[in-house]
Design goal:
This protein has 298 residues and is α+β, with helices and mostly antiparallel strands. The chain folds into 2 domains: 179 residues, Jelly Rolls (Sandwich); 115 residues, Homeodomain-like (Arc Repressor Mutant, subunit A, Orthogonal Bundle), CATH 1.10.10.60. The chain has a 5-stranded mixed β-sheet, with helices on one face. A 5-stranded antiparallel β-sheet has the order 2-9-4-7-10, with helices on both faces. The protein is built from 12 helices and 10 strands. It holds the Pfam family HTH_18.
């Protein structure tokens, strides 16, 4: 698999003009033109932001194809597997590449790690309204203008400021998307709860151990970060928090329905460390398992 250490190398490999800045690459894709990179899987040392209305082709991030039925944005992080193969667009699109080194010494170095959509690895790309598209294009055009000017001491600051604005707007737009696509969100929440119920009923607590966010997300065919963000929007709790609540509900039932010790119940629930189970129970319920059983039975 090809790994690009520099943006110049990526441009050269794909027949693009050399980048004006070795740490930033801009590729504007014209209407009904292909916009492919390498036509094979690759990794790189840089972030990428893409906007496109896909007519045909494949865009894959990690192991999952992006959902590009409408105008949408994609976000890629360094050293993640990417594939853009035979991509043909309905309208103009763009790709922004920026090497991770350009963030050194800037607030965005830390801020970018807070944008969980870089970790979605999911078929849920960001779908934009016409008004949102206009905002993103205006920011891209500002980046392009600055990129093509003679660079000076302010160029890097200005470009990174506009990139940061794109990321902040994207965070806002994703929250809107969670709200607007309530049918999908509701189905995921229901399937999440059903998954946990079947996990217990099928005896996986003993054979596999505690259910993890990664396991449940894989069964739902979405990423752990996307699942947590979606559940947070719908329920106010992350996926891990909801798993803990579910397990403690099971624990309360076991404490009252059997004569098993706290340690035995912990092991039956998949906890290898009974003291950790007791701490988690107290955190979620407010009292220790033994005290809970004593108070309810008395």
């Amino acid at each position: 698999m090809k790994h690009f250490k520099s943006i110049s190398e990526l441009h050269r490999e794909n027949g693009f003009q050399p980048p004006s800045n070795p740490l930033i690459g801009l590729i504007k894709c014209g209407q009904l033109r292909t916009c492919s990179l390498s036509n094979a899987e690759f990794t790189s040392d840089f972030y990428a932001i893409g906007f496109k209305k896909l007519k045909s082709g494949v865009i894959r991030y990690g192991r999952t194809k992006y959902d590009h039925d409408h105008g949408s944005m994609s976000f890629f992080k360094p050293r993640q597997v990417i594939e853009l193969r035979d991509v043909e667009l309905h309208e103009d699109g763009f790709l922004i590449f920026f090497h991770e080194d350009i963030l050194n010494g800037y607030p965005l170095y830390h801020e970018i790690k807070k944008y969980s959509y870089f970790d979605y690895e999911t078929n849920e790309a960001l779908h934009l309204s016409a008004k949102e598209e206009q905002i993103i294009w205006e920011l891209y055009n500002k980046i392009e203008t600055e990129y093509n000017n003679n660079p000076d001491e302010y160029s890097r600051d200005i470009i990174l400021t506009h990139i940061d604005s794109i990321l902040k707007y994207s965070q806002r737009f994703y929250k809107r998307q969670f709200i607007n696509r309530t049918d999908l969100s509701g189905k995921i929440v229901s399937r999440f709860n059903d998954m946990l119920t079947h996990y217990v009923e099928d005896g996986h607590l003993k054979t596999i151990g505690l259910p993890t966010v990664k396991y449940v997300a894989a069964e739902l065919n979405i990423s752990g970060r996307y699942l947590s963000d979606l559940l947070k929007q719908e329920t106010g709790k992350t996926a891990l928090e909801l798993i803990h609540i579910f397990l403690m509900t099971e624990a309360k039932n076991m404490l009252l329905a059997s004569d098993n010790t706290v340690s035995e119940i912990a092991y039956n629930l998949g906890f290898e460390n009974p003291p950790y189970f007791s701490r988690l129970f107290k955190k979620e319920v407010g009292i220790s398992p033994n005290l809970f059983k004593k108070q309810v039975l008395n």
